[in-house]
Write a structure and sequence with these properties.
single chain; alpha/beta; nine-stranded mixed β-sheet; two-stranded antiparallel sheet; 10 helices; globular
């Protein structure tokens, strides 16, 4: 099978999947933007153990020393997309929230751009958790994490066994393991083809990058996918809209289920049978049952799609209500 056919297959399978289923921190305030009467947003730069990361800090008005929630989004996204929606909503409820660009995405420059590597992104979340301690505007003894879609797995990995974080929540969690990923992306032959593409890309002198989302480019990672191709939703100027083909190795071999049995944090899943991969959420919940001390629970909402969880007001409102109720008990 040639490279062109494999990339086309990757596109088709990715769309099918969407449908289917330690350095000290120096904070530099770059700009403060007033969002509304309930909160403000500061653009900051974090000097972390993985390097400099661009971040936005959302602060509630008239709340001294608030607890803080680290918010991360779906694959290929940047901090101004669904993380911003949830961060602003949390700030309106009295929580500080921080969003950031992972290494190589958005405003966080890196020699390896647009790499959707779960292990690397998990390390970035851990680095931000460590960095929160030097933020004077927030109570660093009360930290929580919120992961949306693909970064739900990264967040669950990052918080497990981490004494610096008190609780976590995940929204529309995409929690695949390698067997699940192989099935989603067309079976063993197809998955091996994508892994071969990843190996070639990893050995290339220059990054091998394809368009992430497009209404017209059939070679894009997410061809005609909602949200990502809509200019009033995810297709915003800040979105890189790029995907490093070397990502397939880490993505297909990632096991988002691995933290379940050992998960020691109070976790709330906000899910729906109408989201992309409910089977992954059910499998994670089942795996936590072997741990008698598990504090993982779920709220299942009716008829909310994966993409609606990202930014649609009613879906976000229901999710945030559940999340803040959970965090209020833990922080």
């Amino acid at each position: 099978m040639n490279t062109a056919k494999l990339v086309t297959l990757a596109t088709a399978m990715s769309l099918a999947a969407s449908n289917y289923a330690s350095a000290n921190l120096n904070q530099q305030a770059i700009n403060t933007q007033h969002r509304n009467e309930d909160s403000t947003m500061q653009q900051i730069e974090l000097n972390t153990q993985v390097g400099k990361l661009a971040a936005n800090l959302y602060l509630p008005s008239d709340v001294a020393n608030p607890p803080v929630v680290i918010v991360t989004g779906a694959w290929t996204t940047v901090k101004e997309q669904m993380p911003a929606v949830y961060a602003e909503a949390l700030a309106e409820q009295g929580y500080a929230a921080i969003t950031f660009d992972f290494r190589g995405w958005g405003q966080s420059a890196d020699a390896t751009p647009f790499l959707e590597d779960p292990s690397r992104k998990t390390d970035d979340i851990r680095a931000v958790i460590d960095a929160i301690g030097d933020l004077p505007q927030v109570d660093s003894s009360r930290i929580a994490g919120l992961g949306i879609c693909a970064s739900a797995g990264y967040m669950l990995d990052a918080v497990a066994g981490n004494d610096k974080i008190s609780a976590a929540a995940v929204v529309a969690p995409w929690l695949h393991d390698p067997a699940m990923a192989t099935a989603i992306y067309g079976g063993e032959e197809s998955a091996q083809g994508l892994l071969a593409l990843a190996a070639d890309a990893a050995n290339s002198a220059e990054p091998v990058v394809i368009e992430a989302a497009s209404l017209t480019n059939e070679q894009a990672l997410m061809y005609q996918a909602p949200y990502y191709t809509e200019t009033d939703r995810g297709l915003i100027p800040e979105y890189d809209n790029q995907f490093n083909v070397a990502s397939w190795d880490g993505w297909l071999n990632y096991d988002a289920q691995q933290s379940a049995a050992a998960q020691d944090k109070p976790v709330l899943m906000v899910a729906s049978e109408a989201m992309a991969l409910p089977a992954g959420a059910h499998q994670y919940l089942d795996a936590t049952n072997v741990n008698p001390n598990s504090q993982v629970d779920a709220v299942w909402l009716d008829d909310i799609s994966q993409f609606d969880f990202y930014d649609q007001p009613q879906a976000v409102s229901q999710a945030v209500a559940a999340i803040t109720e959970h965090f209020a008990k833990q922080l």
